[in-house]
Design brief:
With about 400 residues, the chain is α+β, with helices and mostly antiparallel strands. The protein contains 14 helices and twelve strands. α2 packs antiparallel against α3 and α3 runs parallel beside α5.
């Protein structure tokens, strides 16, 4: 850095320190002409904003964004200037651009964090107003939709407003094309569900007997070798905080466990169970201990759905699939696509128990079901290895 330039920058700092912003601006014009540096243009924009020259501040910010279109300080200043000019809609979009390029917040000073929170607040307020306007405008059309269609319309509105994250199928192993990413399937597509729910009392009675007399058959649901990358499962690996009573292992019935729960097995076998050699069907009692959370994760294959039947609910338990969170109700089953991110929690002081099993996706033909099973069996046979877990 030349001595003259160093002297200029010293004079700029002195002028700012003495709040002589007119002199600071004049000096900064000389500095930016010499350096063209991003930091100097940002300082010039800030000085001009301090002097009330918003048009001049915009020109300086534009110079920064021409060089670095994702420069966060410039994007944030642009948003605050637009808001100051009363251009609220433009400011909201500008805040969105700034927040999309937000650096780690712990690196930011207090005034910047305050500006960020302000931007989030006016974005949320705008989204609420727009949401209300949209729903009022489409009320007639929406009223003619079925319940599943209304849920999709609701998700469409919220994802359009970016108040709901867009969730997709992300199976860890098997993706069958053409199956929709539906979080919870509507009961109209599950003609077997009412009969299954009707068996809740009988299944619950067998569960109580197992919990009382056969606790030794419960095993940790997560059981990876410690040398494997555990990611979100580290805390629950080999832990009794989430345990299971499995009725199948490698898709084969565990006879002595099935004999303990004949009515449970009968109810499960009336379902359109997915049959894949070595992998499915799968059915188990899932026991989640108090103050335990199952972290967000994705299932193995999208060609089948997972069914939950809640049996012991101590309260303060929850379940989320994608952008939809549902409350548990005793004896009310649901089927969901577990290749969409999902999680569960038990914030109560007692254990929560549900029956979990799997069924074919209702969108598959019998021919597709057989072919999927054959493809996976052929793959396993060629590789000569057994799967790491059930689908």
């Amino acid at each position: 850095m030349s001595q003259d330039l160093a002297q200029l920058q010293l004079l700029v700092r002195q002028a700012i320190g003495s709040r002589d912003f007119a002199r600071a601006e004049a000096l900064l014009l000389e500095v930016t002409a010499a350096t063209g540096a991003i930091a100097d243009w940002l300082n010039l924009a800030a000085i001009r904003r301090q002097r009330g020259d918003l048009d001049g501040a915009f020109l300086a910010i534009r110079e920064v964004l021409r060089k670095q279109p994702r420069n966060f300080p410039a994007l944030l200043m642009n948003a605050t200037l637009l808001e100051k000019q009363g251009q609220l809609r433009a400011a909201i979009h500008a805040y969105g651009a700034a927040l999309a390029n937000l650096p780690p917040e712990h690196l930011l000073d207090a005034p910047t964090r305050e500006a960020i929170e302000h931007g989030r607040t006016i974005q949320a307020r705008f989204a609420e107003d727009l949401d209300r306007h949209i729903r009022d405008s489409v009320a007639t059309e929406e009223s003619q939709c079925t319940a599943p269609e209304r849920r999709r319309v609701d998700a469409f509105i919220r994802t359009t407003l970016r108040t709901r994250k867009r969730y997709q199928q992300e199976p860890t192993d098997y993706y069958y094309p053409g199956l929709p990413a539906i979080e919870f399937y509507d009961r109209s597509e599950l003609p077997w569900i009412a009969e299954f729910e009707a068996a809740s009392a009988a299944i619950g009675g067998e569960l109580e007997s197992i919990l009382r007399e056969d606790q030794g058959e419960l095993s940790p649901y997560i059981h990876y070798d410690d040398h494997l990358p555990l990611d979100q499962w580290r805390e629950l690996n080999h832990s009794p905080r989430w345990s299971a009573y499995h009725f199948y292992e490698g898709a084969e019935p565990v006879e002595h466990r099935c004999l303990r729960a004949p009515q449970t097995i009968a109810a499960i076998q009336r379902l359109p169970q997915a049959h894949v050699p070595l992998r499915s069907p799968s059915a188990l009692f899932s026991v989640l201990q108090p103050r335990t959370r199952i972290p967000p994760h994705h299932g193995v294959a999208n060609f089948r759905l997972v069914v939950h039947l809640p049996l012991i609910l101590p309260g303060a338990c929850g379940f989320r699939v994608g952008g939809e969170t549902r409350e548990w109700r005793y004896g009310t089953a649901w089927a969901f696509d577990d290749t969409i991110e999902h999680e569960a929690w038990n914030d109560s002081d007692a254990a929560r128990v549900i029956l979990i099993c799997d069924v074919w996706s209702p969108r598959l033909s019998p021919e597709e079901q057989r072919t999927i099973a054959a493809v996976i069996a052929a793959t396993d046979g060629f590789n000569g290895t057994e799967p790491s877990g059930a689908t």
